[in-house]
Description:
about 220 residues; mainly alpha; Arp2/3 complex 21 kDa subunit ARPC3
Amino acid sequence: MNLLIAPNPGLFVSTGLVALMLLAIALWSAPWRQLGSVSVRQHAFFFSCLGLGVFWTLQVEVRELLAFHPLLITVTVMLFGLRLALVAGAAGVLVQHLFMQMSGANGLWQAMPLEYVLQVAVPAGWTWLMIGLVNRLSFKNPFTYFLGVGFFGAGLGVQVMTLTALLLFWLIGNDLLFDVLMDHYLITVLLMFPEGFINGTLATLLTVLHPDLLRTYRDDWFTR
């Protein structure tokens, strides 16, 4: 979700503080040594940083106030874990705005903290929670991983993001954005299927072809 108008001061400050705190923690505690020890994982990480930003430019605008696009954060968390996904998402937001500025599309630098919180931090946290729940299931099957997290988790993550945005707009008192999002809430429902399909398909392919790349996939747990 992208904001196409400048956020009010309360929205900018509150999301900016949250975004800075989360990004600082992620940068400090991310497993950089493990990432640097495997060249394939490094390439995948840098490709994700660039790919997220480019993919997010494929968006649908609503009344020149909001824009919706697939997130792809779920599969990013499945690949790299929560902390590296938060870093990749921050890079993706920056790349997205650079591309939008170069192409002359709508995009506001002031909206970056809000976009980071809504389209990166919230779905990333939700995905991490889903992975934890799947790992605690009593039955062991790879399908519970890429179906439960990749398909259903990603689809539900769209609604978690939307409800968080509505709550945030309501608490801050931004009636315009709250009303627009409520009026076009059906769009977020329709986005659940493509979000789940894209993330689930990528997660399935990676689980089958390159399970060693998936940091959150426990091959010894799901296949024994």
